[in-house]
Amino acid sequence: MFIFDAHLDLSMNAMEWNRDLRWSVDAIRQSEQSMTDKPDRGNSTISFKAMRKGNIGLCMATQIARYVKPESTLPGWNSPQQAWAQTQGQLAWYRSMEAEGELVQIRNREQLESHLQGWNKAPETHPIGYILTLEGADSIVDLGYLEKSYEQGLRAIGPAHYGPGTYAYGTNSVGGIGTKGKSLLKEIERLNLILDATHLCDQSFWETMKVYNGPVWASHNNCRALVDHNRQFSDEQLKELIARKAVIGVALDAWMMIPNWQRGISTPQKMGLTLEHMVNHVDHICQLAGNTDYVGIGTDLDGGFGTEQCPSGMDTIADLQNVPALLRKRGYSDVDITKIMHANFINFLFSTWR
Asked: Which residues, including other chains, have CB under 8 Å from residue 325's CB and lie 6 or more apart?
């Protein structure tokens, strides 16, 4: 089945992890056997070949660069200008992969329709489609930079990531959107960008919902009712998004899927973590909505973690093809499964883009 993944940090893997995604996953893992700088070295799940094998023909692909103030303990850049330059390096990598025929950027309805037709005819050779999204807005030096990003193909943006940001507060922090945040939201709305609510802390989330009237989704966000942490959305937040006809992409990072996960200590095998836990989050959103119209897939695979923090049996991203059978066992129809695996996000794009 064709799969739309609403959140992949492809350029981060290429530019910061130094992974050539044209290699196979096995080759990338082999190249990292002696590396110890990151916990997921030798455990990657993403490559272009694996995406093709799994029929992941379209994704939201990120730019990400956090600006941090001197007192912050988070990793990041010391100025917004440096963060901007980092996102431009990431964009240059996407462009180089376009030149190699590996990727094609999607910016509008016509390109989306053309890509879907092309992939359907020749999935083995057609470039993988990507739509540019910005995770955390700290690299937007001023609002003029947002328009520059739009001209470069940016079509979705999350105002915050982890900690306090320039425009909003994110995961593991508390605070509102302020004047800068409200100005950013107005510009997002003017440009008809998709607002990605993922990572907004509770206060910033609700303040955003009060003033923002444009298209919104949550690309990679699980359910607080199942895993009680501020990174997840509460039922009230999920209902707010559903009321706005948003789509929520379910993520595959272990600590977001199952309670009591301890980083560096827990393992998928010891915790009994499987893809069934992902389906639990999908099902919870469907039960809240009363239908299957507002949930999709936003794996966040290789977003700073690998197989050491994925469901057991999840060797590469290609194993997403096991999800439809799990949904079918729960009583989901083929129409429902198609919506979850790609149609909800794609229909959202068709209805949003002018």
From this structure: none
C-alpha–C-alpha distance, residues 339 and 248, integer Å: 12
Rounded-to-integer distance, Cα 168 and Cα 182, Å: 9
- CB of 354 closer than 8 Å to CB of 192: yes
Q: Does position 354 have pLDDT exceeding 90, yes or no?
A: no
Please state the pTM of the whole predicted model.
0.97
Instruction: Report d(CA 46, CA 130) in Å as an integer.
Output: 14
257: number of Cβ within 10 Å: 28
Q: How many CB atoms lie within 10 A of CB 239?
A: 15
The b-or-e profile of 130-164 (16+ CB within 10 A means b, else e) is bbbbbbbbbbbbeeebbeebbebbbbbbbbbbbbb
- Is the Cα dihedral 208, 225, 254, 252 positive or negative? negative
279 vs 82: CA distance, rounded Å: 39
pLDDT digits (tens, 9 = 90+) for 172-189: 999 999 999 999 999 999
Burial of 72 (0-12, 13-18, 19+ CB in 10 A): middle
Q: How far apart are CA 125 and CA 137, in angstroms?
A: 34
